[in-house]
Design a protein that fits this description.
The structure is a homodimer. By secondary structure, chain A is mainly alpha-helical. Chain A has helices at residues 10-20, 26-35, 46-58, 82-93, 104-110, 117-143, 148-178, and strands spanning 62-67, 75-80, 100-102. In chain A, strands 1-2 form a two-stranded antiparallel ribbon. In chain A, a hairpin with a 7-residue loop joins strand 1 and strand 2 (75-80). The longest helix of chain A has 31 residues, at 148-178. Chains A and B meet through helix 1, helix 4, strand 3, helix 5 and helix 6 of A and helix 1, helix 4, strand 3, helix 5 and helix 6 of B. Strand 3 of chain A pairs antiparallel with strand 3 of chain B, so a sheet runs across the interface. The structure holds a DNA duplex.
DNA sequence: TGATCCATGTAAGCCGTTACATGATTGG
DNA sequence: CCAATCATGTAACGGCTTACATGGATCA
């Protein structure tokens, strides 16, 4: 049960990255991956995390300790091992894959001339709301983070979101104006 | 063979979106999804596109015409139908999913203190190169696009990439300085 | 002469989501 | 009293990637 580790899956990498900072349960890893400062990497579900942790334990990249609790289900607390640390650092040392940006919103924007004004407006509004929420969340995270690298990446995120918001605010009216300008008969309207 | 369309998969949406602008073969759709101005939406492979087109033809959202060529394999040219247009516009009319940003690079950045300087430097350099390439590519696309909506989304992309680059240029030295500052024994070095 | 472009498709397999199963405790 | 939180896991299903199979034409 000790392969040469054969490179980690994204979820496994996430688990090790989080455990590098301290022990945690699967449940906590999930929360950190969604709300914490790892959400930019992968956004994993339980169905992915639990099996990944089991595999990591099998390969001895993590160890586990069971904590029986009264009233609550018992929790399995995982710790990263020396081998785990090495595997993580090795994975991070090889050239990182390209960043991925997928935007359903931009597709809507591209089709603005073919869509009703209301649809474009609500997509724009929803997007703005989300950027604002992310920004607020980011600033909250910035409040409670000491190490330089964390502040660096949070700053990165803030820079991107800010310019994003600026473009949106400056150019939303233009997109709304373009909406519905192509004659498409009557759309998906009922 | 005519279900109520039951909402489109991302790849199917991509196909319809491209076909909305004019007929194309599976091969061409792939190219446009990688190089063209749809790459921000999904980046599909042949193994995803061909079956998707077959399904769309089955649901009568597209039609196909076979063009026999001498010397070359014959090509299947697809056209979107009225039903296809309606299905696409209906899909785009419901609230778009959240934009996704996944960054292996930021994970490397977060672990900078635990990684050798050379690793951090090369990740930073690679990222810079990619942003520059994307920017150049974007400007090339901007040169040959008439409609307002296309220019809008290209401008959006340019704004994001520019601020991205600016942050990188301003803050790369700080990250390099932080590299290797945590004592990790000897890393993944052999 | 060897890589790349054109061009379609299938099959196996991975990786992950969703839904299900279970159930006490705490907070509104 | 109802919802959410804590907590782990399994099973089914889906969608996409990768590799395979095929092969002439063009370009360096």
């Amino acid at each position: 049960m000790e392969h040469p580790a054969e490179s980690l899956s994204p979820v496994a990498t996430l688990c090790l990255a989080i455990l590098h900072h301290g022990e945690a349960t699967g449940y906590e890893i999930k929360k950190l991956s969604v709300e914490g400062d790892f959400s930019y990497f992968v956004d994993a579900s339980f169905g992915a995390i639990y099996p990944a942790l089991a595999r990591l334990a099998n390969e001895e990249l993590v160890t586990q300790r069971e904590e029986v609790q009264s009233g609550r289900p018992s929790r399995k607390v995982y710790q990263i091992t020396e081998r785990g640390r090495r595997a993580l650092l090795a994975a991070l040392s090889e050239p990182p894959g390209a960043d991925v940006y997928r935007s359903p919103f931009l597709l809507v924007a591209k089709f603005a001339p073919h869509l009703p004004r209301a649809v474009v407006e609500s997509a724009l509004g929803e997007r703005r709301r989300r950027i604002l929420a992310d920004l607020a969340h980011l600033e909250e995270l910035e409040g409670r983070h000491g190490d330089a690298a964390s502040r660096w990446i949070l700053g990165y995120g803030r820079a991107c979101l800010s310019s994003d918001l600026a473009y949106l605010d400056a150019n939303a009216p233009a997109l709304v104006a373009a909406a519905g300008s192509a004659g498409d008969g009557r759309l998906a309207a009922e």
